[in-house]
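Renewal narrative, Specific Aim 1. Our central claim is that a sequence can be written position by position from structural information alone. The example that follows is taken directly from our test logs and has not been curated for this report. It begins with the C-alpha cells describing the chain, in the order in which they were read.
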C-alpha cells in the first residue's frame, strides 16, 4: 500500500526521518517536503569524481553548492537521514522539475526495510546548460509503501548494524567525471575538421594548376583545328587587295581596288548574321 501525505507525516513522527528534515509551518503547503503521496529529499553535500592519485589525500567533505556542467557527473549525498522500519519500503526517482532540465539519476532504486543512513546517488547533466546542485534543493522523491508483513531480516541486520550512505574513495574512483566524454570528443572532432581542411587545401594547390594548364592546351588546340570556314572567301579577297596595292600602275590598281571593294561588300551582304557551326 502506498502511503499518502497524512500517513507519511505519521511515520515521520515515529522516526522515519531522524535528522536533516526541515520542520515546516504547514506540512500540506506547496513547498513542503511531504507531497500528496511522496516524500522529497534534498541535497546535502556534492562530491566530484576523482582519480586514484587524489586518493592519497584526505577524503573530501563535499561541497554545499556545485555547478554541474553538461556531460559532467557528481555524487550527491542527501541532507536527510532515513530510518526505515521493517514494514516500510521506499522507491526513489528524480522529481520532474529536476529531470525536465536534463538531469539523469543513475538508478536511485529502492530503500529496503530496516535501512538507516543518508542516501547517495550519481547525477549526470544530460542537458545543454549548467545545473546548480545546492544544499537544501529537492533532488529526489520517495514513494513510501507499507508491506503486508514485516520483513524477516531487514537491511540493517543484513549489514551487521552498519549504516549506509557515507561517500567513500571507492565511490569517487569508480565514477567518471565526464560521463559522455564531451571534452575529449569535442577536441577530436575539431582536430579532424582542421586536418580535413588542410588536406583539401593541399589537393587544390596541386590539382588547380594542372587543370588550368590542360585547359589552356586544349583551348589552343581547338582554336587551331576549328577555323571558321565561312570567312575564307573574305580573307582571300583581302589578300588580293594587299597584293594589288603593291602594283606600280596606280590607276589600274585603284580600279581593281574599287572592284575588289565592291566584291567585298557583296560578300558581306551575303554572309549570314549568325555563322554556321563547324562540322568538325
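The sequence written for that structure reads:
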Amino acid at each position: 500500500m502506498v502511503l499518502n501525505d497524512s500517513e507519511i507525516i505519521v511515520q515521520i513522527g515515529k522516526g522515519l526521518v531522524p535528522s536533516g528534515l526541515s520542520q515546516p509551518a504547514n506540512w500540506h503547503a506547496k513547498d513542503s517536503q511531504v507531497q500528496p503521496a511522496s516524500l522529497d529529499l534534498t541535497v546535502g553535500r556534492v562530491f566530484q569524481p576523482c582519480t586514484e592519485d587524489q586518493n592519497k589525500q584526505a577524503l573530501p567533505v563535499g561541497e554545499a553548492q556545485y555547478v554541474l556542467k553538461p556531460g559532467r557527473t557528481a555524487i550527491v549525498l542527501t541532507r536527510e537521514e532515513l530510518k526505515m522500519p521493517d514494514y516500510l519500503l521506499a522507491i526513489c526517482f528524480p522529481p520532474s522539475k529536476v529531470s525536465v532540465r536534463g538531469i539523469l539519476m543513475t538508478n536511485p532504486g529502492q530503500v529496503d526495510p530496516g535501512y538507516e543512513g543518508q542516501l547517495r546517488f550519481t547525477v549526470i547533466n544530460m542537458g545543454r546548460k549548467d545545473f546548480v546542485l545546492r544544499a537544501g534543493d529537492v533532488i529526489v522523491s520517495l514513494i513510501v509503501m507499507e508491506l503486508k508483513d514485516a520483513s524477516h531480516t531487514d537491511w540493517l541486520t543484513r549489514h551487521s548494524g552498519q549504516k549506509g550512505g557515507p561517500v567513500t574513495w571507492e565511490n569517487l574512483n569508480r565514477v567518471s567525471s565526464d560521463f559522455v566524454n564531451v571534452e575529449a570528443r569535442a577536441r577530436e572532432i575539431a582536430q579532424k575538421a582542421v586536418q580535413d581542411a588542410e588536406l583539401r587545401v593541399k589537393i587544390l594547390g596541386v590539382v588547380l594548376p594542372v587543370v588550368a594548364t590542360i585547359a589552356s592546351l586544349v583551348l589552343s588546340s581547338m582554336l587551331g583545328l576549328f577555323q571558321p570556314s565561312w570567312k575564307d572567301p573574305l580573307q582571300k579577297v583581302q589578300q588580293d587587295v594587299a597584293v594589288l596595292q603593291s602594283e606600280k600602275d596606280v590607276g589600274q590598281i585603284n580600279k581593281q581596288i574599287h572592284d575588289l571593294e565592291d566584291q567585298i561588300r557583296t560578300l558581306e551582304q551575303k554572309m549570314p548574321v549568325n555563322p554556321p557551326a563547324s562540322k568538325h
